Amino acid sequence: MRNDDLETRMRERERFHALTLHPGAWAIVRVDGRSFSKYTETRFDKPFDPRFSALMAGAAEALLTELGGRYAYTESDEISVVLDPANELFGREVEKLVSLSAGITTAAFTHAAGEPAVFDGRVWTGTSLDDVVDYLSWRQADAARCALNGWCYWTLRKDGRSARQATRDMHRTSVSDKNELLFARGINFNDVPAWQRRGVGLWFETFEKAGHDPVADVPVTATRRRVRVERELPMRDAYRTFVRDLLVR
Question: Which domains does the chain have, with CATH numbers?
């Protein structure tokens, strides 16, 4: 059997290798921590720990940079990176985008944390900017829901409830009930840091850096690019306007 025949047969069995993003489509790569409820249980403070948030923001910056994304958003143990329709990274191959995104995030988080952690990945696609704005609004709404639930659950746990009791006490409670639960214990959910309730956004921005030309012996300025990490995101309609304006620049 000739080697080229063998290679052809083997290549034909590579599933999804030829699957690519539709031309002109927006895409969002999302990675999630695997078994992070167990991973964070004894390592970080509850319900939120700035150290864990910093690790996630660092991993999000690495992923945004490596993918050449337009915007990254992280909340809890997930990261979403927006790729615009012109992004041709890896020939827009879904298999590579998913596998390498999980690998990049895993490596960045593990290196910063100093111990192993694992992420998985997926790709979402949209046909318009409106779709992207809807997606990002959806994830921010999830951040707010999870933040309120997390504060209620861990407040009850610190009150002495077992995991089962805390879950039972929260069963079928409304948003108003949960806010009242916290308020009765001296916690105003609206005063909780914005990054816990709204997530963290990252994007590239340009800035002017002062320098000196040693040949001409004159001061000069150069335009540089850096990643901005924003922990005071707007919410609801203001957030929709913010991300739309950011993505059409």
Answer: 15-129 (3.30.70.3000)
